[in-house]
Each structure stands twice: as structure tokens, then as C-alpha cells.
Design a protein that fits this description.
The complex is a heterodimer. Chain A has 2 domains: 150 residues, Rossmann fold (3-Layer(aba) Sandwich); 133 residues, 3-Layer(aba) Sandwich (Rossmann fold). By secondary structure, chain A is α/β, with parallel strands linked by helices. Chain B has one domain: ABC transporter involved in vitamin B12 uptake, BtuC (Orthogonal Bundle). The chains are: A alpha/beta, B mainly alpha.
């Protein structure tokens, strides 16, 4: 930058003068304006923005805040990583918001930042994905493992008429959630549906192509197979894609955990009659009410605390500060168009 | 540096060449020293930083709170650190896109060495910094001695180092790093709002300022950026200089990786994603020419702080990251265009005046 011209020199000189003047003004401002922040502000911090699942949970949060009065804010990183979430937690601490409702990208990495936010008086509610219990007040759990297992077993039993061979298409062989659910499904089958036989569990590794191939192999190995349960959103979509173009369409029932957006075409063409998942909108709604109850001091996160959650009714805080949303929602041709995530 | 620099004035104090090749003329020195020192892009960025700071203090709720400065420096530390060697690399006309991947790789190595291999934390950290230097040496060898373009080389190693980092840990994350080391980085200095890690940066900043602005190595860096053929003929070891600079970038990225591990108590392969662009944006905003040959560290530090202050203020205003990115992007483009416009205008106006009189 050369300042040969008087005009450019003047411009820079003016900038400098202006900045000097502003600095002078700024000097006596220190301190005022701090400590503001409406206590009823509830900030939602999902794993990342632009994710339909979290768009739905934030809509629920917004609805709840509209209902009990207060201000709602949604902030978040574009990448779902813990280091990207930390600055937003820090900002909430600086603003001194009433509560931070967060789906954590890591159980421990956010700990220090959350602790500092709580020191600054912010209540911390986790939903969908928890942090270690010492770093938050309450965790809103989408559903209990028993509830998830039972919903899927009930669905498949209803679709195949309560008897015959079924198989499970899971995620990775060492996936913690899925293995816990599969154990519970086996118990539930033995207890409630003795005429249903679980012939095989295969693993699609939450990879679309692998899940697709495993589905094909299952149907060839077990000609009498009547139903498939896939407790993973990747698996159920891949299996549905295979079934929809094969001769088994309509012959072999498929159910499990899926999202309405993924499964809509297969519900429409009749490949799948019904599947389950918790409703993220209700999850956000409940999380916002829990945050509200914490701010008002109605609950502290102790086991046995109870609070009202608007349309969802009364909830009780369980062990480790966990609140369970309830039974998963079942999606079928009648209601699938009401959901978008 | 024998006969190559006939003037006693350090090259940095020369006004921008602006790429028009007529950098060193008597006209440039016709103005008094205070004008040459103050009317620079660096001063403009520092002034802008002050304006934004004051504006945010007055207008953004909670910006003047006690936590702002503390978080600002915690967030900016890796960018501040890596911006130092990056400035030197860009002044030579090269670029290093692999720094963020090196941060992730060294963070992952710190985790593996400390948690799995059972080394003590300082040993794991020093090893990680050494690994960073090796990563940088690989870049520097390919750029300096093999003569490949740094853009291509470091796009390759950006993917390579990130791939190794993710491969090393998979979806796993290592945590549980010693608190006493984390505290040494993140605790406040006394009663101030400044984290202790800032001391490390200040020491490095002084070292890099001496290296760039007050040593023959630094004059070589500027010479390479202006014309590396000419630099070679005037006795600058171009290849070695580039190797050293990339190694420095790697080692400092390794240090930033250790910082990252401690600050978040976390070692993951996907840490610091996209940070290379933040560093480069800050360096360019700070007045370093992407074509090489000009720049100064005080401008770069102001550039990093400016980007950080804008991001912090906009988060407090509840703006999304995308809006912040748009503002930073516009500012970056403006910082490149405005000096060009000014030098174009200053090239035209006097001529017209001369013709009139």
C-alpha cells in the first residue's frame, strides 16, 4: 500500500484518529453492560447444525420455550466435533444464559468447558448424547434399552403373525448399543413370543453396501425367513432397498429403527409396514422443559425430582440424573408424512 | 548477505511492492520516517482491530465480561502459534496447507504415546513435537530440494497426515491427560484474564520476530519471496531456507497439537479440522502478500486477533458460524483489494495532476 496520494493518506489518518477517539470513549465504558443476560434464555447446542434430526429437536425446544415463555436460541458448529462445540459453550458462559441444552460430541472433552459454564451459573442439560454425569445437571435419554428392544420385537411379531423365523441385521459386531438391544430382544422373544425363532444375527457394520449384501445372503441362507429386524438406521434402509427390488418384497417383513425421511419411499411402496424411532421433536421439547425446571429451581437433578413437561405430562428424574423420554414412536403409512428428519 | 542489500533500511519498512515491480524507488523514501513506519497495512489492521474491539465493547452484550479475553486467547492459541512460521513460509511465496493435519497427527501421537505406550506426558509431548518437525521436514524436502510446488505437496500431506491421524485412533478418543500439565496451559496468569500458555506464544513471537526482521536468515526469506533466482545468486541457500521453514511449521504445529490435547483433554484424529484456512486467512489479513516478499509479524498477530475478536463478538450476538465465515471472507478479500485500489489510484492521480499543471 503506497500512500502517494493525499486522499489515501487522509483516509488512513482519519481511521487512526477515529480509532484513537473511540479508544478514549471506550475507556470509561469498562464494566457497564456486564452481568446482563435474561435468566430465561435457553440455548440449544446440537452436535452440528444442518442435521435434520437436530432441526427436529430444536423445533421441539422452540415450541416448549414458546409455551412457558422465555427466549430460545440455537447455536452450533458446522462440524460435529467436540473442539468445535467448546467455543459455543464458552459463549453461553459469557452470556450467562439460563440453561444450555446440549448433545455432546464427546463424553469427557467438553467437561472443563461445561464446568466453567456451570460456575458461571448456567444449568446444563444433555440430550441424545450424554457427557459424564459430573459435568451436567440432567440427561434426557431418548428411550430405555428395554423400550427400544420391546418396540421392535412387538412390531415384527405383529407383522409376521406371531410365529416363524426371524433374523437380525445389526451394525458392527462390537457396537455397544446394538448388542445391548439384541440381548434384550432375545429375552423378550423367549418370554412373549415362544413361536418366533431367531435364526441368525448378521453385521452390516453400519455400511450401506455391506448391509445390502448381508440382507441378500440372509434371504438365500434362510428360505423360510419371515421377518428381519434391523436396529440401526443404516441397516434398515439398505435392507429395504434390497427387498424393494427383490421377489421377497411383501413376503418378508422388515422393521427396526429408521428415520422417516430415509424410509418414506419404502413405506409408500409397501416394502415396510411400520418401524420405530424416538421422536426427536419430543426429545427437544422435554429437554427444554427440564432446563426450565432447573432454572426455576423446581428440580436440581436429584433422583426422584419431578417436573411437568407441558403436553408430555409429568416426568421423574431417575438414577444418575437421567430422564427417560418414553416409548419409541412407531411410524407407518398413516403418520409418516407428519415427520421430517 | 554480501552485496545483495545496498540499503541499510530493513526491507520490511519498505512500502508494499504491490506486485508492480517498482518497489524500491527514491519516491518510496521521499516521505519522512514516521510516515513510512505508520502508514502501512500493518498499522491499518491494528487500527481496525482497535476499532472492532472498541465497537464490540460498547455494542455487544457481555463482550466486556471477565471471560471474553480468557476464552479469546484459549481459542486463538493454536492459530497464533502456527501463524508465526506460516508468515515466514508465505513471505517466501510458498504455502503450507498441512498444518492442521499435523496438529491432529501430533495430538493423536501424544494420546497413543501417553495412554498406550505409557510414556510420561513431557516425553510424549516432546516426541509429538519431534514428529511434527519430521512431518514438516518431509514437506520442506519435497518443496526445497525436489522443487515441487508447495501447494501440491501440502495438499497431499494434508490428506496424508490426516489419514494417519484418523487411522491411528480410528473412532476412538484418548482422554485422561494429566491435569497438572493442562493447568499449566489453561490456568490464568495471576489475577489476569490471560491463560498461562500465552507466555509460550510470547517467547516464540519474539524469537520469530528476531529471526524474520533482524537476521540475515530473515532477509534471505524476503529475498526468496521477491525473486528466488536473484536470492540464489546473491548467496541465499534457497532449498535449505525452505526446509528449515517447513520444519519450523511442523514443529510449531506439533506444539499446537500438544496444546490442543491438553486444552480439550482429548486426542482425536479429527481435531482442528479446517484450521489451516483460519491460519492462512489471518496471515493474509495481517498484510502478508500471498505472492511473497512482504509482510511483518505484528500485522499477522493483529490479523489473528481481529479474526478471533470478530468470531467471539458474533457468537455473543448469536450469529451462526456461517455468517462469521462470510464476514471474515469479505474482510479477507477487502484486505487484498483495497491496497490494490489505493495503489492504482495513487498511480493515476499524481499523473493527472502533473498533466494539468
Amino acid at each position: 500500500m503506497k500512500f502517494h496520494s493525499k486522499r489515501a493518506t487522509t483516509l488512513v489518518a482519519l481511521t487512526l484518529a477515529a480509532s484513537a477517539a473511540l479508544t478514549a470513549c471506550g475507556g470509561d465504558d469498562g464494566g457497564s453492560g456486564g452481568g446482563g443476560g435474561d435468566d430465561a434464555t435457553i440455548t440449544f447446542l446440537p452436535k452440528n447444525l444442518g442435521n435434520p434430526y437436530f432441526d427436529a429437536s430444536s423445533t421441539g425446544g422452540q415450541n416448549a420455550v414458546d409455551a412457558f415463555g422465555g427466549s430460545f436460541e440455537e447455536v452450533g458448529p458446522t462440524e460435529a466435533t467436540p473442539d468445535a462445540q467448546v467455543p459455543f459453550i464458552n459463549t453461553a458462559a459469557q452470556q450467562g444464559v439460563g440453561a444450555l441444552v446440549i448433545s455432546a460430541n464427546d463424553p469427557t472433552a467438553l467437561g472443563d468447558a461445561l464446568e466453567e459454564a456451570r460456575d458461571a451459573g448456567v444449568k446444563v442439560v444433555t440430550f441424545d448424547s450424554d457427557v459424564d454425569a459430573e459435568y451436567r445437571d440432567v440427561f434426557i435419554n431418548q428411550a430405555s434399552a428395554e423400550g427400544i428392544a420391546k418396540a421392535q420385537v412387538d412390531l415384527v411379531a405383529e407383522q409376521i403373525g406371531g410365529e416363524g423365523e426371524v433374523a437380525i441385521l445389526s451394525a458392527a459386531a462390537n457396537a455397544t448399543n446394538q448388542n445391548a438391544w439384541i440381548d434384550l430382544m432375545e429375552e423378550e422373544l423367549a418370554a412373549s413370543y415362544p413361536d418366533i425363532e431367531l435364526v441368525e444375527t448378521v453385521y452390516g457394520d453400519d455400511d450401506d453396501q455391506t448391509s445390502f449384501d448381508k440382507t441378500a445372503a440372509l434371504l438365500q441362507t434362510h428360505p423360510n425367513l419371515k421377518g428381519i429386524i434391523s436396529p440401526t438406521t443404516v441397516g434398515i434402509a439398505a435392507a429395504a432397498r434390497y427387498l424393494s427390488t427383490s421377489d421377497f418384497k411383501g413376503q418378508v417383513a422388515l422393521t427396526g429403527l429408521g428415520t422417516p425421511d430415509q424410509m418414506r419411499p419404502f413405506i409408500e411402496d409397501g416394502t415396510v409396514t411400520a418401524f420405530a424411532l424416538w421422536n426427536p421433536e419430543e426429545l427437544g421439547y422435554l429437554a427444554a422443559y427440564a432446563a426450565h425446571a432447573l432454572i426455576d429451581g423446581d428440580i436440581t437433578g436429584e433422583e426422584g425430582d419431578t417436573f411437568e413437561a407441558g403436553d408430555l405430562g409429568e416426568y421423574t428424574v431417575g438414577e444418575n440424573g437421567e430422564v427417560i423420554l418414553g416409548e419409541p414412536t412407531v411410524f407407518n403409512a398413516d403418520n409418516i408424512d407428519d415427520f421430517s428428519f | 548477505m554480501s552485496a545483495s542489500t545496498p540499503t541499510k533500511t530493513p526491507l520490511t519498512k519498505r512500502p508494499a511492492g504491490g506486485g508492480d515491480g517498482s518497489a524500491r524507488t527514491y519516491a518510496s523514501y521521499a516521505r519522512p520516517a514516521w510516515q513510512r513506519l505508520l502508514l502501512t497495512r500493518e498499522t491499518a489492521i491494528i487500527a481496525l482491530l482497535v476499532v472492532v474491539l472498541v465497537w464490540a465493547n460498547v455494542n455487544v452484550p457481555n463482550f466486556d465480561g471477565p471471560l471474553t479475553v480468557y476464552y479469546l486467547f484459549l481459542d486463538l492459541m493454536p492459530i497464533l502459534l502456527i501463524a508465526l512460521p506460516m508468515t515466514l513460509i508465505i513471505i517466501t511465496g510458498e504455502i503450507d496447507l498441512s498444518v492442521a493435519s499435523t496438529v491432529a497427527l501430533t495430538s493423536a501421537f501424544t494420546g497413543v504415546l501417553f495412554t498406550d505406550a505409557g510414556f510420561s506426558f513431557p516425553v510424549a509431548a516432546l516426541a509429538a513435537i519431534a514428529i511434527g518437525a519430521v512431518c514438516g521436514a518431509f514437506n520442506g524436502f519435497l518443496v526445497g530440494y525436489v522443487g515441487l510446488p508447495s501447494l501440491a505437496v501440502t495438499i497431499g500431506t494434508l490428506a496424508l497426515y490426516r489419514g494417519i491421524a484418523v487411522g491411528l485412533l480410528g473412532t476412538e478418543a484418548k482422554t485422561g491427560f494429566p491435569d497438572e500439565w493442562a493447568d499449566r496451559v489453561t490456568d490464568r496468569i495471576g489475577e489476569t484474564s490471560y491463560p498461562q500458555g500465552l507466555v509460550v506464544f510470547l517467547v516464540l513471537a519474539v524469537v520469530f520476530a528476531l529471526l524474520l526482521h533482524f537476521s540475515s536468515f530473515g532477509r534471505g526469506v524476503f529475498e526468496i519471496g521477491l525473486n528466488d533466482e536473484a536470492a540464489r545468486f546473491s548467496g541465499v541457500d534457497v532449498a535449505r531456507t525452505k526446509l528449515v521453514l517447513f520444519m519450523l511449521a511442523g514443529a510449531v504445529s506439533g506444539l499446537a497439537g500438544v496444546y490442543y490435547t491438553l486444552r480439550f483433554d482429548l486426542s482425536r484424529g479429527d481435531s482442528a479440522t479446517g484450521m489451516e484456512l483460519q491460519v492462512i486467512a489471518a496471515v493474509l489479513l495481517g498484510g502478508v502478500s500471498i505472492f511473497g516478499g512482504r509482510g511483518a509479524l505484528h500485522g499477522v498477530i493483529a490479523g489473528v486477533l481481529l479474526i478471533g475478536v470478530i468470531a467471539s463478538a458474533m457468537r455473543l450476538e448469536g450469529q451462526t458460524q456461517n455468517v462469521t465465515n462470510i464476514v471474515t471472507g469479505v474482510l479477507l478479500i477487502a484486505s487484498v483489494i483495497i491496497p490494490r485500489l489505493l495503489s492504482w489510484a495513487s498511480g493515476r492521480l499524481p499523473r493527472r495532476t502533473r498533466g494539468d499543471t
